[in-house]
């Protein structure tokens, strides 16, 4: 049976890697056809292979069928960006951010004639001035029915190598369009729609509000963590605290992860069992063990409800229920079988779970605990042995998380076993239960006690954060899988031969060498950062950032969201030159984040004083046989105090006779100035198009002088400027060039070298069936 479940899971994983969605029915038929003989002759060992193959095909078919249904609920492209009037219910706890608030909306009725809107959408309601429009936000509570005019778009996220797949995240949560509320005054129709899920969301709001009243943020710096632990609102945690958690490997503790749900269930179960055994009348009615199981499951269920039924918490709940049923049946079922049954339940309900790092982390950790823990903890006798076994379990769980952490975050905290050995029991057994108690009884002393314990823990974690962190480039998937097998071998019981072999299997993932350009070649990646520009230029030994990307909001920018994670995934934590072409926030917005996260050798910019050396026409240097030359602005452009676009630094990269020209936001007059200085200097094989394809730039004379075969346009999906302009695109098209754009193609990777220029688009290389749908 275990092998069959694994085969079913493998079928689901295979489907989630498909570039196009295949039809489900041929696979379902094939699976059933194979299953019939497999069941009929199940005692004949060779026939079991048929059973495994049947499960593989059925897993594939199951995931395909579910995806087909989900994708059918879509916003037609024709209705993107148009005003649509809808009636619906605020379906979840709204999340506030600096410019407004964001919430899920369950659509009940579409009033606009002929408009089609998916059942569940995510809306932003802005406050204040935005894109030349004035917004006034009204207070919003879950469970309220509203009539509003909205503008929607299909799910779209940035597509970058090793980047977060926002479109997959939306798909798993069944949010099939995103958009914003128009200032066409929305109307609250009903105060409360009485449906169980809305009632729960309203309760969560009450709990969050009561925490902010009991523990005002001015005096209680860590109150946000308590809110995150109780209602799963992670935005309540301030940004800089995440650095501490990341460096100590304790991030998972600050969200309602599988761990807390399990611990809360265990705590309630143990308490109930303890009381039950001491009250004979109770024990007569129901055996103490059953009562404990029931109490544990109920506690887990209510906690998961309070957490907003978030996907990761849900997964744990299903796992716990399977485990409890197995225990309740009284049969001795191998822990591995329980775990796999839970896996099956999770995947039947949510076949997209395999796309989430958290899924693998929680199954890996629980698997390791079962694998090692059941053997170690059971036999421990005396407090010393107990502490030792607790240490072993921590070590096992930490080791099990290594492959996933390297694959997804490229970071592994060396202090994490120690930090977790202390933090897990304190958070799970003391802080979380106290915070939950404070949620039920909003009495200041309880909340304050939880906050005080948390304060002590934070002191310890801040000390741990000073320890070194292992950073490694992202290994390929196969190396991570091999490392997973290695972990299992390492955790074999003592005395088993081959444990050293396990260590050897870990090595490729830990020491994966990153591919680097050979001498005389340059690799350039134009990252997909939405409307704006962020580019990374690499030679064999050097790295240059050509613009760190746009500012998204007061809390986030492309530097921290896209550029730094991309470089980390390549194992790069130092750049030789940070070139910030001009001061506009769609180019310079990520500057501070890049400077704080990476070691920056030199800054070249047109920003003026305090922002490094000014870039100037004529600057040039050679890295590993690659020639880099600045072509604009000229020295007198600074003297004339031109506007920011006209000061954009223009960079030419020449590798073995192949050239790429990067032009940031120059305009027609700058193109003319460069043409006048030296038209031959502009000739290039690849051109990063000026000013996102705006009409201010790309004059026919400039296009002719550059004569590029490939032109790259960095633009945001459905950006408000309408970039790139159709006539500009046509101008390039007329010259017989190939056109690439980041909104359609994702990150663009250019290889310049002896063989000319090779270009690859990330959305082609890593296409998935849900992209753009
Ligand atoms: Zn720009």
> What does the average pLDDT come to?
89
Shape: globular
Kindly report how far apart the N and C termini lie: 36 Å
Q: What is the helix tally?
A: 27
Q: Which segments are poorly predicted (pLDDT under 50) over 5 or more consecutive residues?
A: none
Strand order of the largest sheet: 17-16-15-14-13-12-25-26
Structural class: alpha+beta
Question: Which cofactors or ions or other ligands sit in this model?
Answer: zinc ion
Q: How much is the radius of gyration in Å?
A: 29 Å
Number of DSSP strand runs: 26
Amount of helix? 40-55%
Strand content: 15-25%
Profile the largest sheet: 8 strands, mixed
What this model shows, in words?
It is built from 27 helices and 26 strands. The chain has an eight-stranded mixed beta sheet. Strand 20 and strand 21 (658-662) form a beta hairpin. Helix 13 packs antiparallel against helix 14 and helix 19 (558-569) runs parallel beside helix 21 (591-597). It is globular. It starts with a helix and ends in an 8-residue tail after the last helix. The model has no long low-confidence stretch (mean pLDDT 89). Zinc ion (ZN) binds at residues 533, 584, 586-587, 665, 692.
Summarize the helices and strands and which ones pair or pack.
Blueprint: H1 2-15, H2 25-40, H3 45-72, E1 83-90, E2 95-97, E3 100-110, E4 120-126, E5 128-130, E6 133-135, E7 145-153, H4 166-172, E8 178-181, E9 187-190, H5 196-214, H6 223-231, H7 239-248, H8 258-278, H9 280-285, H10 288-306, H11 311-328, H12 335-349, H13 357-379, H14 382-408, E10 411-413, H15 416-440, H16 444-464, E11 469-471, H17 477-490, H18 499-510, E12 522-526, E13 534-538, E14 543-548, H19 558-569, E15 574-580, H20 585-588, H21 591-597, E16 599-605, E17 613-614, E18 620-623, E19 626-632, H22 635-639, E20 650-655, E21 658-662, H23 668-677, E22 686-688, H24 700-706, E23 710-713, H25 726-734, E24 738-741, H26 742-745, E25 748-753, E26 756-761, H27 762-765
Parallel strand pairs: 4-8, 14-15, 15-16, 16-17, 21-22, 22-23, 23-24
Antiparallel strand pairs: 1-3, 1-7, 2-3, 3-4, 5-6, 7-8, 7-9, 10-11, 12-13, 12-25, 13-14, 18-19, 19-20, 20-21, 25-26
The structure holds zinc ion.
Zinc ion is lined by residues 533, 584, 586-587, 665, 692.
């Amino acid at each position: 049976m275990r092998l069959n479940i694994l085969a079913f899971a493998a079928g689901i994983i295979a489907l989630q890697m498909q570039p196009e969605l295949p039809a489900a029915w041929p696979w379902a038929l094939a699976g059933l056809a194979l299953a019939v003989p497999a069941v009929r002759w199940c005692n004949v060992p060779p026939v079991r292979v048929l059973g495994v193959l049947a499960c593989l095909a059925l897993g594939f078919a199951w995931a395909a069928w579910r995806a087909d249904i989900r994708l059918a609920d879509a916003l037609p492209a024709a209705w993107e960006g148009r005003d649509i009037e809808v009636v619906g219910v605020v379906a979840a706890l709204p999340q506030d951010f600096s410019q407004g608030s964001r919430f899920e909306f369950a659509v009940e009725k579409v009033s606009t004639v002929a408009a089609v809107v998916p059942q569940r959408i995510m809306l932003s309601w802005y406050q204040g001035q935005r894109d030349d429009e004035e917004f006034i936000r009204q207070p919003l509570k879950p469970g309220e029915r509203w009539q509003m005019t909205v503008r929607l778009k299909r799910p779209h996220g940035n597509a970058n190598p090793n980047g977060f797949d926002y479109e997959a995240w939306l798909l798993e949560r069944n949010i099939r369009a995103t958009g914003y509320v128009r200032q066409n005054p929305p109307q609250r129709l009903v105060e409360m729609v009485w449906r169980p899920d809305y009632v729960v969301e309203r309760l969560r709001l009450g709990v969050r509000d009561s925490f902010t009243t009991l523990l005002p943020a001015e005096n209680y710096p860590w109150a946000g963590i308590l809110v995150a632990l109780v209602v799963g609102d992670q935005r309540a945690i301030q940004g800089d605290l995440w650095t501490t958690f990341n460096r100590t490997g304790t991030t998972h503790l600050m969200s309602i992860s599988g761990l807390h749900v399990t611990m809360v269930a265990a705590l309630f179960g143990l308490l109930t069992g303890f009381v039950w055994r001491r009250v004979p009348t109770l024990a007569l009615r129901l055996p103490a063990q059953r009562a404990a199981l029931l109490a544990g499951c109920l506690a887990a269920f209510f906690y998961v409800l309070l957490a907003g039924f978030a996907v990761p918490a849900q997964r744990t709940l299903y796992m716990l229920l399977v485990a409890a049923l197995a225990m309740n049946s009284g049969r001795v079922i191998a822990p591995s079988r329980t775990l796999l049954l839970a896996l099956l339940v999770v995947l039947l309900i949510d076949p997209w779970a395999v796309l989430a790092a958290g899924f693998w982390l929680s199954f890996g950790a629980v698997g390791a605990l079962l694998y090692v823990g059941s053997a170690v903890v059971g036999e421990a006798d005396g407090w010393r042995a107990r502490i030792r076994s607790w240490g072993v379990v921590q070590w096992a769980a930490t080791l099990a998380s290594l492959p996933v952490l390297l694959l997804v975050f490229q970071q592994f905290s060396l202090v994490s076993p120690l930090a977790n050995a202390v933090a897990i029991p304190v958070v799970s057994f003391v802080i979380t239960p106290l915070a939950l108690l404070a949620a039920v009884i909003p009495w200041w002393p309880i909340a304050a006690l939880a906050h005080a314990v948390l304060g002590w823990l934070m002191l310890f974690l801040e000390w741990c954060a000073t320890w070194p962190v292992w950073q490694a480039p992202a290994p390929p998937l196969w190396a991570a899988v091999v490392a997973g097998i290695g972990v299992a071998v390492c955790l074999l019981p003592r005395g088993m031969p081959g444990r050293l072999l396990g260590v050897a299997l870990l090595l490729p993932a830990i020491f994966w060498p990153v591919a680097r350009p050979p001498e005389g070649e340059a690799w350039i990646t134009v990252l997909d950062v939405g409307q704006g520009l962020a580019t990374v230029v690499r030679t064999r030994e050097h790295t240059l950032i050509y613009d760190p990307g746009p500012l998204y909001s007061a809390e986030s920018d492309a530097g921290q969201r896209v550029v730094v994670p991309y470089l980390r995934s390549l194992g790069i934590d130092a750049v030789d030159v940070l070139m910030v072409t001009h001061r506009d926030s769609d180019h310079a917005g990520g500057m501070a984040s890049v400077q704080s996260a990476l070691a920056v050798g030199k800054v070249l910019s047109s920003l003026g004083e305090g922002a490094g050396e000014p870039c100037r026409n004529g600057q040039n240097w050679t890295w590993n046989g690659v020639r880099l030359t600045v072509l604009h602005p000229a020295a007198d452009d600074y003297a004339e105090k031109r506007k920011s676009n006209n000061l954009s630094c223009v960079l030419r990269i020449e590798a073995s006779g192949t050239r790429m020209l990067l032009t940031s936001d120059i305009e027609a007059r700058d193109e003319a100035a460069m043409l006048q200085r030296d038209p031959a200097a502009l000739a290039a094989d690849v051109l990063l198009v000026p000013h996102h394809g705006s009409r201010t730039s790309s004059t026919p004379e400039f296009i002719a002088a550059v004569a590029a075969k490939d032109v790259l346009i960095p633009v945001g999906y459905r950006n408000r400027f309408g970039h790139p302009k159709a006539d500009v695109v046509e101008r390039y098209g007329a010259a017989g060039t190939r056109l690439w754009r980041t909104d359609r193609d994702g990150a663009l990777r250019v290889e310049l070298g002896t063989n000319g220029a090779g270009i690859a688009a990330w959305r082609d290389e890593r296409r998935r069936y849900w992209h753009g749908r």
